[in-house]
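Complex 384.
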Amino acid sequence: MTSIHSVVDLRSDTVSQPTDKMRARMAAAVVGDDVYGEDPTVNELEARTAAIFGKEAGLFVPSGTMGNLLAIMVHCHRRGTEALVGDLSHIFLYEQGGASHLAGVQLATLKNEQDGTFSLQELRRRIRHNDCHEPITSLVVVEQTHNICGGKVVPLAFLDELAAVIRQPGVGTGNARIALHMDGARVFNAATALGVGVERICRDFDSVSICLSKGLSAPVGSVLVGTKAFISEAHRLRKALGGGMRQVGVLAAAGLVALDEVVPLLAKDHERTKKIANAIYELKSPNITVDLETVQSNILLVEITQPKLTASDFSTRLSIVDAGEVEAGVTDKKGAGIVVKASARDWAFARVVLYHQVDDEQVELAIRKLKYVIGQYDKQWPRS
Ligand SMILES: *Cc1c(COP(=O)(O)O)cnc(C)c1O
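Predicted structure with pyridoxal-5'-phosphate bound:
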């Protein structure tokens, strides 16, 4: 028995690796000083992305967090403003409250429904109107796909209705227009699942932040898109946030390959995610379950229904190999044990995320391990 295990890393699509083509394009990239606007590869990535999204201009930024923060800073440029975001949104939960501590903007939360939407009735009630006691509602943000809701694709009908609510005459404070921003970290996954172009999904949005480094497999970077005026302001503020980068075409080159070569393959990630979901579902375990209907893209939430078990116990167990399982044949082709990495944090579920490098063989290994571990739980805690 070899001591080197086969590792299937399903913690996040951020662990995806640059492809061989990306590395080749990166090495060959023509570069310049991007702060001077002179990096042709960055300029190409920004223009290409803007065109794909049907927007006027784009800006390459180091991270999705910076893309979202810049959008908040530009849309909420006045002092005393507020942005409305989902209470399960990445902006609210996982960006350190940058809107408040760096941009001086108050975030107000709307309760996220399980499908990643929020109540539009509630939204209407929460928009402020011309009262000097209140902050100025300047921005509403939608996350697409919705990460903590399990990679849910926020429906087009909701987006259309949201835009109609926001753009109604008389909505907002004075004639200050309320902007719509999409945290589109995984918007290409949404487009793949819906079978429509990203430009349709983002039609009514003033700005979109798109991650190249998640399922798109690039090593780093996000692109923010919007009007020329919006991008010009964001470009200015990017420098203040320390995001002015120099010969960064070497990174933008990977982004171009991501758009060309990885986006068309996202459907495979979705299929494989469903395959893992089905395998767990078919076990009909009283301890660990999945809700098949909620599996829409590359994220799967595995629910822990056994009260004596936490998500972190489950993910820890998946990450170790014991002698019993190797004897039982839960191994790769060479007889090595299987390690599956999943995310758990303090959640009531473990999160599994698929991406470019997780191929059919890795999926088979992951399923083998999941079936074994869940099977052990079912022996320990049989259906009563
Ligand atoms: C990953 C992610 C971001 C941005 O994250 P960075 O790590 O800063 O690139 C923003 N929103 C969502 C929904 C994400 O999943």
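The longest helix spans residues 360-380.
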